[in-house]
Amino acid sequence: MKMELIQPFINAADAVLAQNLNCPTQLGHFVMEEHAYHSKGVAAVVTVVGDIEGRIIFDVEPATATRMASVMTGTERQESEELVRETICELANQVIGNAITTLNDQGFHFKVHPPQVHQGEGTKGNEDTEALVMCFDTDSGKVYMNIAMHYKRRRRGEQL
Amino acid sequence: MEQFARVIRKDGQTIRYLIVDDSVFARKNLSRMVESFGGQVAGEAGDGRAAIAEYDRLQPDLVLMDITMPEMEGIEAAERIVRQHPEARIIMVSSVGYQENIVAALQRGARHFVQKPVKADVLYEVIKYVMGEDCVVAKGATQGS
Question: What angle do the packed helices A62-73 and A81-105 form, to 10 degrees?
């Protein structure tokens, strides 16, 4: 996996989390993994198809999602399945939307499918693709992002 | 939340908004922002098709429209609304803000584009710009929530 594919997602996650949660974020651990991914709680999986193909998993514990929702809406929220799902999907959409904006303006063209939410179970990635797993520390808790992507085609004008 | 001076129609009436997003969460956040600008949420819709029906029914002053939605995407819904109501003021609000998308939205009738995560002060300025001479800034800030 090339860093030029990953960096826009890191930048986007950093900016989106900091703005929505109104706090500084810190990138914690950062590791490559080849085995299936196991969710920490609730995971939104977004599939990317086009010049770049793969998937991004955005993952938080339900209590973290609830704290995030409280900050984002400015009112104390009670944990519920719907609230947790809504929060994780909205953050995933914003992070991924911002990242693909950068990649698209760099010449990569691809489609992003809406997030699929998985709860309380291992989310299996493509076994042939190594994934980069990173953790962002925020005031509301830890946010995990798992990225597995590869080039399908190079940008227009570039050779494989 | 930040405090803003109320933006109202030049006839003194409250600006009425239609908020279109498939995320309930996003709709709530946008509602909270426009209310902090002194506006009123006339209605909400969760997809492009519902947005067209709600526009016909409510005739709002401004529409805040997401792009990626089920049933019908926001750009197509904006185009259909503007075809029926050339005076419609639609601001696209999306996390996907690459140039092609913005140009497509503007070519098909949207008046402006705001990227998510939405900053209240940016949205406030865009709303004033899109309303143009049809709005005035009233004295005194709204009560922040």
Answer: 80
